[in-house]
Amino acid sequence: MGSSVERCARDDALAGVAAGVACALVGHPFDTVKVFAQGVESRARASTVAATRAIYAARGFRGFYAGVSAPLIGNSLETGMNYAVFHETRRRALDAAARRRDGGATTLNDRLCASALGGGFAGAVLCAFITPFELVKCRAQMGGGGGRAWRVARETYAARGAFGLFRGFSHTLAREIPSGAIYFSSYELLQSFVPRNGASSSTVDVTEAAFEERDAAGLALEAVAAVGCGGLSGVITWLAVLPLDNAKTIFQCERPGGAHDLSPLALLGRLVRERGVSGVYRGAVPIVARAFPANAAQWLAFEFVSRSLHHRRVASSP
């Protein structure tokens, strides 16, 4: 599709870094409200409105960007690695599917399965990288270190050593594998419904759609598709994994030996008993409010930076 120059892992990584920056800047205030609502014990302070007021009253507007340095650095590098690992894993899975078909064209089902596999594997690979950033971010958002990520990191290291920064690794893994699979496969499925030159969704690889030559109307369509499909895939994913994210947040903010110092499933069960099913969906409003704009910005940045880098390689190729 497009040119004969194939995807490049370096381009995917660089475009992913840009996407991560866009996502962090747009989504962090919503994430701060979500983490605060998840972490407080009082039901009265757990609502989105109450959490928002509490944060603003305590720290002003800057409070919504508490701990932003950790995800701004971590999320950009994480997203770059995530897209690179995802596309490489997906490519290998599709190559295997094509061989099973004796070199025949892959189907939409093949591509959805490859995207789910690639997303889940990328999530697993990145857990070792993102766990320390998630821990620092969550504790800073709850007011630890005066809301300063670097202070939280320093205090955690002083108290527990490097190993302390990886508290919650298994809980992050339990969230990241299903969320990666759902995220990338739902984006591909939603993109397959976007009409492109009358081509059938069963024959078009939507991950390379933005590489095609486009006039102004075509570029506008790709932008709308990236925003709409990216935002919706983010909402779908977060609604699916929010209980696991709740458990991860609470575990990482809990002291070792505390009541919530439990394995992922045991902690999830305890939260259901303590708070009810609705309780494990604490933070759902800011999550949904954040998921659409943050993921829309992420996919828009990724698709168009990736497109720019791709066309530059095409122009310089012999």
TrEMBL record:
<dbReference type="Pfam" id="PF00153">
    <property type="entry name" value="Mito_carr"/>
</dbReference>
<keyword id="KW-0812">Transmembrane</keyword>
<keyword id="KW-0813">Transport</keyword>
<protein>
    <submittedName>
        <fullName>Mitochondrial substrate/solute carrier</fullName>
    </submittedName>
</protein>
<feature type="repeat" description="Solcar">
    <location>
        <begin position="221"/>
        <end position="308"/>
    </location>
</feature>
<dbReference type="GO" id="GO:0031966">
    <property type="term" value="C:mitochondrial membrane"/>
</dbReference>
<dbReference type="InterPro" id="IPR023395">
    <property type="entry name" value="MCP_dom_sf"/>
</dbReference>
<dbReference type="GO" id="GO:1990575">
    <property type="term" value="P:mitochondrial L-ornithine transmembrane transport"/>
</dbReference>
<feature type="repeat" description="Solcar">
    <location>
        <begin position="110"/>
        <end position="193"/>
    </location>
</feature>
<dbReference type="InterPro" id="IPR050567">
    <property type="entry name" value="Mitochondrial_Carrier"/>
</dbReference>
<keyword id="KW-1133">Transmembrane helix</keyword>
<keyword id="KW-0496">Mitochondrion</keyword>
<feature type="repeat" description="Solcar">
    <location>
        <begin position="7"/>
        <end position="92"/>
    </location>
</feature>
<keyword id="KW-0472">Membrane</keyword>
<dbReference type="GO" id="GO:0000064">
    <property type="term" value="F:L-ornithine transmembrane transporter activity"/>
</dbReference>
<keyword id="KW-0677">Repeat</keyword>
<dbReference type="InterPro" id="IPR018108">
    <property type="entry name" value="MCP_transmembrane"/>
</dbReference>
<comment type="similarity">
    <text>Belongs to the mitochondrial carrier (TC 2.A.29) family.</text>
</comment>
